[in-house]
Amino acid sequence: MKNLLHRLLAELPDAIRYALAAAALILSQHGLVALAFYGHAAPLAFDRMFWFFPIRQLAMLPGISPLVAIGGFAFCLAISTALVFLSLRRADRLGRGGGLALLTMVPTIQIFAAFVLTLLWRRRAGAPAPERVGNPAPPHQLARGTVAGMALIVLAVAVSGATMGAYGWGLFVLTPFLVGVITGYIVNRGTLRSRGETLVAVALAGLLGTLALLMLALEGLLCILLIAPLAAGLAIVGGLIGRGVAKPLGPQAPLYSVAALPLVFLVDAAMPPELPIITRTSITIAAPPGTVWASLTANRPVAESPGLVGLAGLAYPVASRIAGEGEGAHRIGTFSTGTADERVTVWKPGRTLAFRVVRQPPAMEEMSPYRKLHTPHLFGYFDTGETRFDLVPLPGGRTRLTARADHVLRIDPGLYWEPIARWAIKQNVTRVLTDVRRDSEARQEARAAAHSPHGQSNTQLAD
């Protein structure tokens, strides 16, 4: 016990120096936010959100210039980079805590990681160091590659998505590929590492980049999960290429490729895609067209479960209400993400109902540490046009109900996003048709029961 106390006292000066330096770096972000609020003459609440999510507060500042917001993110990354290398030196002296040192790169999480790293003590003299397999990259070399990849992820999303509103080839294809190239190149520069070590570094950059996007409120988890399969594949290919060119090329050669990103972002923003998606689905209902029409135009909720669409956070219809009748009537569609204002364009009782969306809610509900997330891709990148229901009478008092839904997708690459969008639309349309069938057949059964002799006698008794 006395030996442990002696060791802790001996290490106290180093721990204090690290704690003061780490605190100064972390608090500089709060100082930047306070300065920005002061410059905009905006009130700043020194609450929990300010202390734990300072850069988030900066992004939410009313009237803030996109350049100022990008500058804030860049400052945050610079501070985080300095903090991670400071923490790596601390971990080297202690002989432990390398993982905590890398976590100080992530905003908000860095507060807790630095706190724990301050409390750690040096590995006991003579204790065996963790066994290293092969010739792993030195911690600082690994950190440089990881930090570079993570920083590229954050800056790409901040510039392309949050500032330019460009969601296309630059952000979803070129960025993950270059993250892999740069991370793989830096990790292998000087000493060639194994493919496994290289891919671990690339994965670590992606993981920390994802955490940073969540903490900075630049993206939500669901959007990241949707793009993850494509991004992971491209990052792996890029990481192997970066490893392959690490030795023969000059020190800065692959880094020049980053200069192409802003140009691709500009092209994506100037020429957004316009991919029409038309979905047509039919269902047979054991009820006549008049009953089906009554179900279509009734003010009622959609009782069917949203299924995987709901679990994925994508918007799905919850209820509908029509104010008035005929063409031009106001239809209100309640979705899981908000309310859609619609106008009836075709009103032919028992035959056709069509309406066009005038104002629609967000396309999805993001998962985030924050209550509300206002990322640009939630609005205007997946629009609903006209939805049309056609009723065709069939023999035996049945009806074929056909739904046609028109949508426009404005995100590239279309080859990746279109199947996801088509699947979500198909699920929603099928769910609505199934709900109409259930309600229509229930109405028909109730009507038949009311007109049966037993039903009539009950009615007469009630009278």
Give the tags:
single chain; 463 residues; alpha+beta; Alpha-D-Glucose-1,6-Bisphosphate, Chain A, domain 4; 2 domains; 8-stranded antiparallel β-sheet; 8 strands; 55% helix; disordered C terminus
Question: What is the fold's blueprint, element by element?
Answer:
Blueprint: H1 2-39, H2 48-52, H3 54-59, H4 66-94, H5 98-103, H6 109-119, H7 139-163, H8 169-188, H9 195-215, H10 221-244, H11 260-270, E1 275-285, H12 289-297, E2 300-301, H13 308-311, E3 317-323, E4 330-335, E5 338-348, E6 352-359, E7 382-394, E8 398-409, H14 414-450, H15 453-462
Antiparallel strand pairs: 1-8, 2-3, 3-4, 4-5, 5-6, 6-7, 7-8
What does this protein look like?
- The chain has 463 residues and is of the alpha+beta class.
- The chain has 2 domains: 2-123 and 136-270, no CATH class; 275-450, Alpha-D-Glucose-1,6-Bisphosphate, Chain A, domain 4 (2-Layer Sandwich), CATH 3.30.530.
- The protein has 15 helices and 8 strands.
- Strand 5 (338-348) and strand 6 form a beta hairpin.
- The longest helix has 38 residues, at 2-39.
- 37% of the residues are buried.
In a nutshell, what does this entry contain?
With 463 residues, this protein is α+β, with helices and mostly antiparallel strands. 55% of the residues lie in helices and 15% in strands.
Per DSSP, what share of the residues sits in E-state strands of 2 or more residues? Answer: 15-25%
Helix content: 55-70%
Q: How would a crystallographer describe the biggest sheet?
A: 8 strands, antiparallel
Q: Low-confidence spans: pLDDT under 50, at least 5 residues?
A: 129-137, 457-463
Mean pLDDT: 84
Total of helices? 15
Oligomer: single chain
- Give the SSE string: HHHHHHHHHHHEHEHEEEEEEHH
